[in-house]
Amino acid sequence: MVDILVLGVITAVFGVVFYAMWSVYYAVKAVGGPIIARLVTYGVWFMPAPLAASIIRKKGSAFLGEFLPAFLEAILPTVGGVTNIYYGLGQGLFSELVYLARRYRKYGLIEAGLASALPAIPAVTLDAILFGDIYPVNEMLLIIIAIAISGFIYGVIAYYISKTIRK
Amino acid sequence: MYRMTKPRILTILIYAFTTSTLAFIYRDLYDLLVLLAPTIILVFIYARRGLHWIIIGVLIGLLGLFINAIAFSNTGETVFRLFTIEVKTGAVHAFLVVSIRLFIIAFAGALLALTYSPIEIYRSLIYELKTPVIIAFPVAYALRILPVVKRDYSEIVFQRKQRGLKTNLLNPLDLASVVTLLMVVNYERAKWSGISAELRGLRRIKPEFQYKPRIVDYILLTLLVLLVVYTIAF
After folding, report:
1. What is the mean pLDDT of chain A?
2. What angle separates helix B9-25 from helix B215-233, to the nearest 10 degrees?
3. Which helix (H) or strand (E) holds B64?
4. Per-residue pLDDT, A115
5. Is A154:B172 a contact under the CB 8 Å cutoff?
6. Mean pLDDT across the stretch A77-105?
7. How far is the alpha carbon of B143 from chain A, nearest alpha carbon, in Å?
8. Rounded mean pLDDT of A29-48?
9. In what helix (H) or strand (E) does residue A52 lie, and over which residues does it extend?
């Protein structure tokens, strides 16, 4: 029960943070265009997965940690609408893969960073399908790497937040 | 004043999902316009309150999309000049396609989120869609504590400003301080709520499927089928 409610807390907290991030994202997007906006802000959208996994440390926690705030975002009035659910599903699955690869035994700093970096792949793929953001292969790779670095930084931050909470 | 009968939440959910998914798939400008027109009408009938925030959000986003279109799709004949930049047919077409797609997604989402409250949507997910408890319960709890988290967030921002600290969400360290405080406070609340619920012997409920479509639901679903068939056929 406590684990389910912790997921509820992460959903609510990141529901508020994501809601606030939409205006930040669009302000950056208006000034610097979509690529810069993604590089600067996308890491924040990948944070809840490693945070949930690092606190709860159970199978599926990374996936639900990413999917549920996205689900909440979809039912609150935001520009992304129900497409947030697609992003939540894709990003959650890729985060979960990191912990699955470690057979759910390790929930350390590296795992948190990777679980926040790997969702760069579905995020960029969905952006390409949804917004037609398709660039030459080398540029596409650069965008994925840059977003993954941004994700890794926020994953590390998520790990330290979880450490504070678990104390 | 006469009030239009609202469609069931499940019907709106189906409509919002289908139109957003079709907006992903369609590449033709005409197909996207056909999809946008009824969505705009539905939004203005059912979901006008708060819509201006969604429109402002999309309009701000359009500027970025225009920059992107000029940077990556500026090919073909020149349509007009913007200062020193020649805006070509490719950029105009790419900008229009992505803008309309964004409007469809935003309006379809608004139709769901502004017609009903989040609590009503959650109840529908339980009773109409029979969503698994592992998804429904955290969402229910999140919706319940959302006003408390919003209040906590405002207090943290206020206190940080009083101490001369910034709350720039683009700065990872500022964001980390805000999220840590929000998580620590609400984690304690969740822990004691969970213990209290367990002590009270909270049981899982097995709701019956209760979707009862009304005439307006049939109209909306028929419109959706017609939209799909029309865009595929033509």
Report:
1. 86
2. 10
3. helix B51-73
4. 94
5. yes
6. 88
7. 7
8. 81
9. helix A48-56
For residue B147, what are its two tokens?
């006003």
CA distances from A44 to A48, A78, B43, B66, B147 (A): 8, 16, 30, 25, 21
Question: Alpha-carbon distance A90 to A81, whole Å?
Answer: 16
**How many angstroms from the chain centroid is the CA of residue A96?**
11
Cβ of B54 under 8 Å from any chain A Cβ?
Answer: yes
**For chain A, which domains are there?**
2-166 (1.10.1760)
Which chain A residues are within 8 Å of B202, Cβ to Cβ?
1
Closest CA to A75 of B108, B201, B147: B108
Q: Which of these, B4, B1, B6, B3, lies nearest to B217 by C-alpha position?
A: B6
Residues of chain A with C-beta less than 8 angstroms from the C-beta of B17: 82
- Residue B115: what residue type? T
Q: Which amino acid is at A39?
A: L
Q: How far is A1 from chain B (nearest CA, A)?
A: 5
Whether B122 and B143 have beta carbons less than 8 Å apart is answered as yes
Helix or strand or coil: residue A39? helix
B209: pLDDT strictly greater than 80: no
